[in-house]
Amino acid sequence: MELTHNVETGTPLNLDTDPERLRLIIDTIPGFVWSAAPDGSIKFLNQRGLDYTGFSSEQIRGWNWKNSNILHPDDMQGLFETWSAIVASGEAGEIQARMRRFDGEYRWFLFRVAPLRDDYGQLVAWWGIDVEIDERKNAEDLLAREKRLLEMVAKGDPLTTVLDSLCALVEEMAGDSLCSILLVDANGKLRHAAAPSLPTSYVQWVDGRDISLEEGPCASAASLKTPIIASDFNLEKRWPEEYRMLVLEQGLRACWSTPIISLAGAVLGTFALYSRAPGNPTAKQEKLIEQFSHLASIAVERKQSEDALRRSEAYLAEAQRLSLTGSFGWNPASGEVFWSQETFCIFDFEQTTKPTVELITQRIYPDDRALVQRAFEQASRDATNLDFEHRLLMADSSVKHLHVVARAVKNEADQLEFVGAVSDITASKQADEKLRQNEREFRQIVEAIPMLI
What we know:
The protein is of the alpha+beta class and about 450 residues long. It has 15 helices and 16 strands. Helix content is about 40%, strand content about 25%. It has a six-stranded antiparallel beta sheet. A five-stranded antiparallel beta sheet has the order 2-1-5-4-3, sandwiched between helices. It is flat.
């Protein structure tokens, strides 16, 4: 028995029991339900899936989908090969790929499929459900990239290297955008810091400009301490004609600039995305601008902090946070522990409390204490960096998930010390658990569908 739309005849099917309710269930499930013949050719897709893709039943029937742009070109071959392997095995399986929405945007989906067999064990059909995981994939990708950048910061890589890598990652993720970072120098002028894809002549013109409303969107963003969106330079009247002609000659049509702000509220520079087509930033690009401008501030403040430490020879007293979460310092030889304000907040201790290894251990989730102890013992023994996750058991019995990153360094007394960042990743963990729960519920729905036929 087929459900809802018969793509071979284009007519509704006669379902033996409560067809309207069954059709409503199939079409309103928060996912795309589909079926395929034993050979893997598609037979139907529910209305939610048709609405998302904008395709008709005929366009996805059989193997027609292979010749359409319903899947991202980079994912098509891998999906087809995996799907063919699943069909050949006769066993359940899953695939991840990007599917095209009716407006042309590709989003990540998890395709899960299971075989339907008759009473004799003969394969009679395949049932599948596609669940959108675009936000999860983007979050995972973003987290991985953030981790790489934070590792570079923690290792003490040169600021130019970190910022160049940051821009390259943003350009890769944002798509059809050119990234630029300008920093404020000691004289209050904007200086080129990173712009791997912008024309050299434009970079040279921008370098050394005053922070002024007359010097373009980046200078305006720094001056006003607020994001500036120039959606079409052809129509812009906010800046001199000289600037407008310059950007248009370089093939630039739009710029979305935001100030890089320090924890103390000072302007450190600007982070901008340029586009060769007019328009406003997408929601994804806005998120990238926000997130990576924060990472840029971390890297810049880290560099400024290191410079100040060398001048003062008292780095722990002057150290800035390595991240937006919290920072810490630890001297294994003396046992001294230093925390930033945010680290006290994460551990939920008053700032008048002196942090010690024993105090920290009390807050660590009992099942994780041995793991944390081994990590710090090995790092202090081998002078290696730290990178691990663990949990805290708070005073109110709630549980927090932390990610710890630290760099092993030698102080002036040639003693090993660790300078690191601790991040609260509880929300990310909870989101992953919620997704897994949703997937379990979807699986139960799919498994129950044959019982309704």
